[in-house]
Amino acid sequence: MVNLSRKKYVRLLVVALIICLISMIGASLVNTNFGHIKVQNFSIEDANGHKIALVMYKPENATAETPAPCVVTLHGSFDAKETQDYTCLELAKRGFVVLSMDCDGHGDSDNYKDNPMDAFFTVTANPGSAFEDISTSPGSGMCDVVNYAYNSLSFVDKDQIGITGHSLGGKMANACLAYNKIQEANGGVNQVAAVFLMGNQQLNIDGVWQDHLNYDPDDTPDSGDEIPLYYDVDYGIDAGQLDENNYQTEAGGPQNFYKSANARVLINELDNYDLQEGDDVEVGKIYEGTVQGSEEKYIRALYQPYETHILNHYSLATTSNLVDFFQNAFEAPNYIDAGSLTIQYKWFFNTIGVIGFFLSVYAFASILLTTGFFGTLLAKKESDIYVPAAPKGVKGNVIYWVFLALGGLLPATFMIPLEQWIGAHKGADFATRSLFGTKIWPQGLTLEQGMWTGAAGLLGLAFFAIGYFLVSKKNGVKPADWNLKMSRSNVGKTILIVLASIGFGYGVAGFAKYFFGVDFRFISYVIKWPSSGSLLIALRFIPLVAVFYFANALCQNLCNMVAGRKEWLNTLLMCLANIIGLVCIWVYQYSGLISKGVVRLDSARVMLTWPLFINLTVCTIISRRFYKKTGKVYIGALMNTILFTVIGCANTMTLYCTNWWF
User: Fold this and answer.
1) CA distance 73 to 56
2) C-alpha distances in angstroms, 546 versus 281, 452, 508, 524?
3) Pairing state of beta strands 204-205 and 208-209?
4) Ranges for the Acetyl xylan esterase domain (predicted)?
5) Long-range contact list for 63-66, CB < 8 A, 24+ apart?
6) CA distances from 507 to 183, 341, 499 (A)
7) What's the whole-number mean pLDDT along residues 444-457?
8) Average per-residue pLDDT in the chain?
């Protein structure tokens, strides 16, 4: 039997837990500004009785006697409120109360729509009667949260409430402002004093920004009762120079947005400016002036950091821009220069937590393998672990490398078309703007990527079979050499050890959330305690995803990791083989964006593949490590399947689907 050192893996587990603990403590201390910010999770009900999950950052200076400015923030699609914590932290350090919310169908908020992004599509520069009541306003709950802050939080300055959001959240900020302006037009109160959009833009008609809302009470265009509502609020835009989704204008790609007519519209909303064609908007400048002869002065600002859409709310540049804007719009109780940030330290602590999490799962499973009960899963001796022979001769090497390259590259050629085909069954516009789920698989993003990985797995199995008949069989390899057979008791033990190990890892994640209020993450790749609902959804996706991870384990361990090659080089090559197709997609997409300002592929679907880089790299390491211990592919393949399915399902948009098929 393969001999494992229990002490070695106990030490590794201790190291993993220390890393996780450092992550928890460090992230918590930074997130609370060493105890000077109170971070509280709670929920409210919207006007229709649906739960809106919130996290509030409340600084010490915010009291009923000294009310503070407040900012409500909303994440982008497929994200959750925690992804806005950099925004929350930096504003709260400066004395702002900040409320970060989960959009419906995301995070811990209720899921009650067949597409939570529907509101995104209905928000235009021509709002109608739907905006007259908070129960029908398409703001995805942001109007309710602003109303809650305005009416229920005594420590909030009612005259200084701002809203901000990334991508979907930015569009909902526009909707929230539209709702409030219409309330004001009908004799109510506009509760919003400032708007800052990340990765989105002012409302437009056919791509042309409008300097006002054209409120249409009877929802009948050109009926003569339209009411112009001008933006008498502070307004800022953060337009990434490499934003895949926005800011394409007559001036060229997003890099040149500051030269565009739409950028001039933003500034010309102020009475004091009349920029004409050829006049560039000064990036980062705070423009100030009146709006339609108002007594009060307002500001406008355009920022253009060199970053992609998905990085907006994680970057130092955009966070600094957001702080700069709100400290100019409001009176910051604790002014700190916008360039003085600490989010990079939280980013560091969050990231090492991801490493600690994966290490703890691996180490715990390895320790279990040293016990008498699970030890029967180990290979009886080293010679029982099948190692493919290195390719021989020119022909053998050509076949090997061609198959390896095709296995890595071919799946990339049908990724986007397959995902678009799945989404296209709701119509062409839906296919380009959202992702589509079913009653069985109610998470569109997970479904599209799951279908692709499943198809890639089938292709891998086909290559594995072809390679066997072309090469391995002729070299005397028999299927029995692969050690695929397993007793019933060992099947049960395999399932048990995988569940126990993943459960242990998530126990650590639950501990982090309960005692420190943090999770483990790298950008939007979040490992947190999953809800019961997301676990049930993950169970439905597991059979779909399993095709890939089992096929991948077979191909890599029984075919591609060959004898005579150093183990680290074997693993490195297989990691590269797994991600090479994605690398090509990204190079093709972003080289065009950088050089010509245009995207060549579906922008949303490409940017949302980035977590696969992590999955496809880590899965190779996990699969290989357990294969070398057991001589079988099953523990690694099953662990990868469950682990990455749960991680994905716990952090995306869930639809309320009524359709069984696409």
Assistant:
1) 10
2) 52, 12, 25, 23
3) antiparallel
4) 33-183
5) 63/155, 64/154, 64/155, 66/155, 66/333
6) 47, 32, 12
7) 95
8) 95
Backbone angles phi, psi at 315, to 5 degrees: -90, 155
**pLDDT for residue 354:** 98
193: DSSP letter = -
Mean pLDDT on 53-82: 96
Give CA–CA dist 598/658, Å, rounded.
Answer: 37
Q: What was the pLDDT predicted at 431?
A: 52
Q: Does residue 144 carry a pLDDT above 60?
A: yes
Nearest Cα to Cα of residue 175 among 214, 226, 217, 124: 124
Tell me the two tokens of residue 253.
């790609």
Residue 85 has pLDDT above 90, yes or no: yes
User: Chain-centre distance of CA 286, in angstroms?
Assistant: 31
Per-residue tokens: 538: 């993950």
Residue entry with tokens 């201790």: 14
User: Sorting pLDDT into bands at 50, 70 and 90, what band is 433?
Assistant: low
Give every CB contact of residue 584 below 8 A, 6+ residues apart in sequence. Answer: 409, 412
Condensed to tens digits (0 to 9), the pLDDT of residues 270-294 reads: 999 999 999 999 999 999 999 999 9
Q: Where are the beta strands (DSSP E) in 181-329?
A: 194-198, 204-205, 208-209, 212-215, 227-230, 234-238, 287-289, 298-303
Q: Distance (Å, rounded) from C-alpha 152 to C-alpha 150?
A: 6
Q: How many CB atoms lie within 10 A of CB 186?
A: 12
Rounded distance between C-alpha atoms, residue 594 and residue 304, angstroms: 14
Q: How far is CA 224 from CA 383, 412, 514, in A?
A: 85, 52, 57
Bridge partners of 25?
A: none
State residue 540 phi and psi, 5-degree precision: -75, -30
Judge whether 328 and 338 are in contact, CB under 8 Å.
Answer: no
- Read off the tokens for 328: 């100019």
Written as six digits, the tokens of 273 are 């400016």
**Cβ-based burial of 17 (10 A; exposed 0-12, middle 13-18, buried ≥19):** middle
Is 651 in contact with 428 (CB distance < 8 Å)? no
Looking only at the bridges linking them, the beta strands covering 68-74 and 97-101 are parallel
In this structure, what are the phi and psi dihedrals at residue 237, rounded to the nearest 5 degrees? -130, 130
pLDDT at res. 118: 81
* pLDDT at res. 426: 67
Distance of CA 558 to the CA centre of its chain: 34
Closest C-alpha to 363, from 4, 1, 2, 3:
4
Q: Where are the alpha helices (DSSP H) in 112-167?
A: 118-122, 142-152
Burial call 61-72: b when 16+ CB within 10 Å, e when fewer: bbeeeebbbbbb
Tell me the average pLDDT across 505-534: 95
Tens-place pLDDT, residues 537-594: 999 999 999 999 999 999 999 999 999 999 999 999 999 999 999 999 999 999 999 9
Q: Look at the chain and count its residues.
A: 662
Average pLDDT of span 637-646? 98
Q: Is the CB of residue 609 less than 8 Å from the CB of residue 416?
A: no
From residue 93, how far is each of 193, 284, 342, 604 by CA, in Å?
21, 22, 10, 33
Phi, psi of 60 (to 5 degrees): -65, -30
Q: In sequence order, what DSSP letters do the residues of 57-89 get, joined into one string?
A: EEETT--SSS-EEEEEEE--TT--GGGGHHHHH
Are 48 and 406 in contact, with CB atoms under 8 Å apart?
no
**Cβ neighbours, 10 Å, residue 543:** 12
